[in-house]
Amino acid sequence: MQARTFCCALAMCGALMLSSGSLALAGERATGAPTIEEAWHQFAIPQGRTLRLFVARPVRATRAPTVILLHEDRGLTAWEQHVACLLAGAGMTVLAPDFLSELGPQRGATESFESRGAVREALLNLSADQIMRELNGVVAFARDLPHANQPPALVGFDWGATQAFRYAGQDHAELSAVFVFYGATPNDETLQRIQAPVHGFYGEKDVTISAGVAKLKLRMAALNKPFVPVVYAGAQHGFLRTGDAPDAMPADHDAHEQAWTRLKSLLGAL
Fold first, then answer.
1. Please, is 125 exposed, middle or buried when counting C-beta atoms within 10 Å of its C-beta (0-12, 13-18, 19+)?
2. pTM recorded for the entire structure
3. Please, is 28 exposed, middle or buried when counting C-beta atoms within 10 Å of its C-beta (0-12, 13-18, 19+)?
4. What are the backbone angles phi and psi of residue 200, rounded to the nearest 5°?
5. Degrees to nearest 5, angle at CA 26 with 21 and 29
């Protein structure tokens, strides 16, 4: 699968400089926005593989909210990196792990796969236990960053939202909040263990997912678990990605704008 042109995906964030195999931003995304830096890190999971992490953060001495961004079933693409960069421009430290690390041809990651079908198959072959164990390692890594000011928040899209929701119900999960974009709901046993507030983002026309939101809201309320879902009128599955395209459907575009504003506001309040 061909990787997208990275500098195009990050054009809104500033000018790019390539140095020592990592990408770094020069200048500021907007007047008054913090200068940010970005780099790739290798993170070794104890008794497991090495995950590749894309990290974007403000260049400043003060502490910042920490966000772990979990990718869709497309793998870690330029789009997730772009989102990470924009959130860093809003003052957050963002880590985006590639769960296809070492799974591609010649032990490559997302960009080494020849097709989206191959990407999805590789993700399906990961066990739930392995994903939770590796995500636990990423959370611990994020929590221990010297510039982190609290437990990290999880933001997941599609496949990543399913993993974020499931991880929120793991024993001893320490999170400030969880944000799920159109992902599947975990089982009731997992729901009962959730401690962090969960914010949901759903498309009205994404009926496979959105049809269960009302029932889920009632169940979370019965369990006394903080859950605030929003179903965006007329929006399809994946609206945060597709709603930003020049040819986006009006409902997807509107949902994209509303959801992006809501996400930044909620993260900024942590």
1. exposed
2. 0.87
3. middle
4. -105, 145
5. 125
Range of the domain at 147: 6-268
State pLDDT tens for residues 102-141. 999 999 999 999 999 999 999 999 999 999 999 999 998 8
Are 254 and 203 in contact by the 8 Å Cβ rule? The answer is: no
Q: CA-CA distance, 136 to 131, in Å (whole number)? A: 8
Residue 120 belongs to domain with CATH number: 3.40.50.1820
Residues 29, 35, 39, 45, CA torsion sign = negative
Predicted confidence (pLDDT) per residue in 27-67, tens digit = 334 445 668 889 999 888 877 789 999 999 988 767 778 99
Query: Model confidence over 3-32: pLDDT tens digits?
Result: 322 222 333 343 322 222 222 222 334 445
* C-alpha to C-alpha distance for 257 and 249, rounded to whole angstroms: 12
pLDDT digits (tens, 9 = 90+) for 207-260: 999 999 999 999 999 999 999 999 999 999 999 999 989 999 999 999 999 999
Counting the structural domains of the chain, the total is 1
Nearest-5° angle of CA 231, CA 232, CA 234? 120
- The closest of 125, 116, 111 to 77, measured between CA atoms, is 111
Residue 240 lies in a domain: yes
Helix (H, G, I), strand (E, B) or coil at 261: helix
DSSP H or E run through 110: none
In a domain, residue 1? The reply is no
User: Residue 55 corresponds to which amino acid?
Assistant: V
